Amino acid sequence: MDQNALKEQTGKESVKYIKSGMIVGLGTGSTVKYMVDELGKQVQEGKIKDIIGVTTSSRTAKQATDLGITIKDIDDVDHIDLTIDGADEISDDFQGIKGGGGALLWEKIVANASNKVMWIVDESKLVHKLGAFPLPVEVIPFGAQHVFNRLEKKGYKPTWRMDGDQKYRTDENNYIIDLHLGEIDDPKALADELIHMVGIVETGLFLNRVNDVIVGTQNGPKVLHAR
């Protein structure tokens, strides 16, 4: 199977964990797109009823709405039963890098409001240590170049996330700086350092945030229990 087939397999498998009446966090990314497609199909067929979706990006909100899934703003629900989202890297100890799709801030807010978090990935996303995938950092536009320069001086090899010839804008109209670190020895220390840097809104380090991971493999979907 190619990578897209693995993503589709994993996305469809995760819908088995969504039950009628749930409030579900709907993530962002290529694997999640398959999950939302399958969820929409089951809602249309009446197999899953009375669910409410809370999305982590405007892209997912449009996809879900077009499929007939009821969407509410996160501030209009008091909790989320289960969030299903993708990940760009997952280490052996279930720490993650997310934000390759630019939705890291909303993804973290939705994850924080969730009783359970599930990540769905193909097997290429499993790594021993984080860092080969560039770490996204969301920054406000005011003074963003100063933040970039500071990250550069620290040797974090920053690059601007681009959208054509313009800087990429998140759903909150912020910029993203990607850090090319190679390997992250102490993710918690790095997360603490970055989040205390003025101008940085959030980082793509998702630490101690996932309960279960569904991995698409050549032998079928595999469920890993993180906690």
Structure description:
- By secondary structure, the chain is of the alpha/beta class.
- It has 2 domains: 3-127 and 207-217, Rossmann fold; 135-203, Alpha-Beta Plaits.
- 28% of the residues lie in helices and 28% in strands.
- The protein has helices at 3-14, 30-44, 58-66, 104-112, 144-153, 187-195, and strands at 23-26, 52-55, 70-71, 80-85, 89-90, 96-97, 114-122, 135-139, 158-160, 162-163, 166-167, 175-179, 200-203, 205-206, 212-217, 220-225.
- The strands form 4 sheets. A 7-stranded mixed sheet has the order 3-2-1-4-7-15-16.
- Helix 2 (30-44) links the parallel strand 1 and strand 2 (52-55).
- Helix 1 (3-14) packs across helix 2.
- The chain starts with a helix and ends with a strand.
- The mean pLDDT is 97.
- Catalyzes the reversible conversion of ribose-5-phosphate to ribulose 5-phosphate.
- Keywords: Isomerase.
- It comes from Limosilactobacillus rudii.
Spell out the blueprint of helices and strands.
Blueprint lengths: L2 H12 L8 E4 L3 H15 L7 E4 L2 H9 L3 E2 L8 E6 L3 E2 L5 E2 L6 H9 L1 E9 L12 E5 L4 H10 L4 E3 L1 E2 L2 E2 L7 E5 L7 H9 L4 E4 L1 E2 L5 E6 L2 E6 L2
